[in-house]
Amino acid sequence: MAVVGALTTSGCGVLGGLQPVSSANPQPTRPSVAAAKTPPETATPPAEEGVSSAKEGWFGLTHPLHARVEMRQVERFGDKSVLRFTVTSLEDEARAAGNSFGTALGDLGSYRIPLIDPVGGKVYHPLTDRVGTLGSKPGYYQPGVHYETVVYYPPIPADVRTVTAITAGTAGEFTGVPVVDGTGSDGPLAPTAAPGGTPAPGTTVSWPVREPSGQVTSSVQDLYGITESAVKTTDASGSDETVGLRTDVLFAFDSDKLTTRARAVLDDAAEEIREKADPGSPVLVEGHTDGKGAHAYNMDLSLRRARTVREELKARLGAAYRYRATGKGETEPVAREGGADDEEARARNRRVEISYSIKKESGAPAPERRGAVGGPAPFHADDGETVASRTYTRQPSGQRLRIDVKPFYRDGAYLVAVFEITNLGPGDLGAGMGYGGDVAYIGGWYTAFSVVDPASRTVYRAVRMGPDDPRGPDDYVDPGWATFNVEPGTSNRGFFYVPAPPPGVTSVTFDAGPFGTIDDVPVRRLP
C-alpha cells in the first residue's frame, strides 16, 4: 500500500514554518556547525570504538563524484522527519554534483534518498513539490569541505529506532541510521564561509534550503517481497498479498478441469487466506494465459479457470469472504515469450492469481510483528572478503566482466545481496547498463539476479517499493543505477534486497544471471 498525501506550505504546514536559508544571505542568527552544541536528546548515540557511520564511494550518473558520506541521524518533528548527513568531496577540484545521491532519475539536482524501515516493511520517500525534493539545495562541492545536508520526509513512527538510507552510488545502503526525537532546529545551520566566499578545506558549511513551491507531496509505501516455487509465486507486503498459482499444476491442458494435485494446492491456498486475509475486503481471483491462441479464446479460458478456483475457495472458506473472479487472458504477462526460455516463460504466464488485503493483526508493523523478524542491521562499512568470483563475456562486443561476491547479510525482514562488478575491457561500460529481469520485474537494476534457499529451493526475488504497476517500470531496493564507473579496470559495488529466508539458513545459492550460479554464499551475522 502506498500512502501519498498532498500538503500545503502555508503557515506552519508540513515544514513547520521552515525559513529557507539563502545562499546569498545566510541567516546570521543560526550558529555555525562547528560552534553548535547539539542537545543530548538529539545527539546521535555514540558509536562503538573504531566504528564510523561514514562510507567512501562514487555518487552520481554521468560524472560521478568521489566523496565521503556520513549519515548522522533522522530527527522526528511531529509533522515531518529530517535526515541529516555530511558530504565531503574527495576530488581535487570543485565539482557540481547534479543528482549525485538520489535514486530517482527524474529529480535531478536533488537528494531523493529512500529511507527503509527493514522491520516494519515500509519505505519513506522525501517530501517533494513541483520542482523536486525538499531539503538542501546543492551546488559546487569544494575539495575537502564538509557539507551539512538535510532532506525532509513524512513522519516516521515512534517505534522505529533505525532506518536504512539507500543512496545512488557505490557506497549503496547505509544501515543502522538512528531515528531520534528532534528538539532543536529543523533545518541546517548557517554556513561558516562568508557570503560569496570559497570555504577552505576542512571547513564545515551548510547548503541553503530550497523554499517549497506550491503543493507538497508525502509518500510512504509498503515493501513487497517476491518468492517463487514450482507451484506458486507470492508477492506480499504487510498490507496485501497476491499468490499466483501455476495453472499447469491446477488444470489439465487447455481445460478448466482440476487435476488431482490441485486439491492439495488449493487446500494450502485456502488455509493461507483464512490465516491472513481481511474478511472485510474481497478475495480477487484472476485468470491468465500465455500468448498462444486467439485473444477471445484466451479471455474465455482464463475466466473459466478463475471461476473454478473461486468456487473451490468458497467450498473451503464459506461465506465469511466475498469473492470476485475475472479473466485477463494473455494481456498481463509476467515473463517474456519468444526467447530462449520460451516454454518456461509461457508456463509462468499461465497462472491464476489470488489477491487479498491482510488483516491488521497479522500484517501491522506493531511490536508483535517487530519481534517476529530479525532486528535491523547495525551500520557497517566493511563488506567482508570475496567468497566467489565469476566472469562472463558480453556479445557481440567481447567485453569481459567479473563479479566478486561478498557475504550476504540480514537487515530486518530482508536479506541483502552484495557484490562488486569489474569491467575487464575492452571498452567502457554503457551508461545505464544493468541486469534487469523479466516483464514482471522491470525497473530494477539487478532483477535478473535472485537468491535460492538450497534446502527448500524457494527463489527470493528483489524487493519492490510499492505495488506492481503493470503499465510501466517499478522501483526496487537497489542503488537506482548500476554503472557509476565505466572505464576498463574500474568497479561498481552493487546490492539488492530480497525477502529473508528462515533464520536457520546460514548459506544460500546466488543466481547471478549471466554470471551463472554460485553455491554456498554465506549469510553473515553482523556485530
Write the layout of secondary structure elements.
Blueprint: E1 2-7, E2 54-59, E3 65-76, E4 81-89, E5 95-96, E6 115-117, E7 122-128, E8 140-141, E9 146-153, E10 162-166, E11 173-181, E12 204-206, E13 216-228, E14 232-236, E15 240-246, H1 247-250, H2 262-276, E16 283-288, H3 295-317, E17 323-327, H4 342-349, E18 351-357, H5 360-363, H6 367-370, E19 388-393, E20 400-405, E21 408-411, E22 414-425, E23 450-452, E24 459-465, E25 475-476, E26 491-499, E27 507-511, E28 517-524
Parallel strand pairs: 3-11, 9-12, 16-17, 21-28
Antiparallel strand pairs: 1-13, 2-3, 3-4, 4-9, 5-8, 6-7, 6-10, 7-13, 10-11, 13-14, 13-24, 14-15, 15-18, 16-18, 19-20, 20-22, 21-22, 22-26, 23-24, 23-27, 24-25, 27-28
Helix pairs in contact: 2-3
Record keyword descriptors for this entry.
mainly beta; 26-stranded mixed sheet; 527 residues
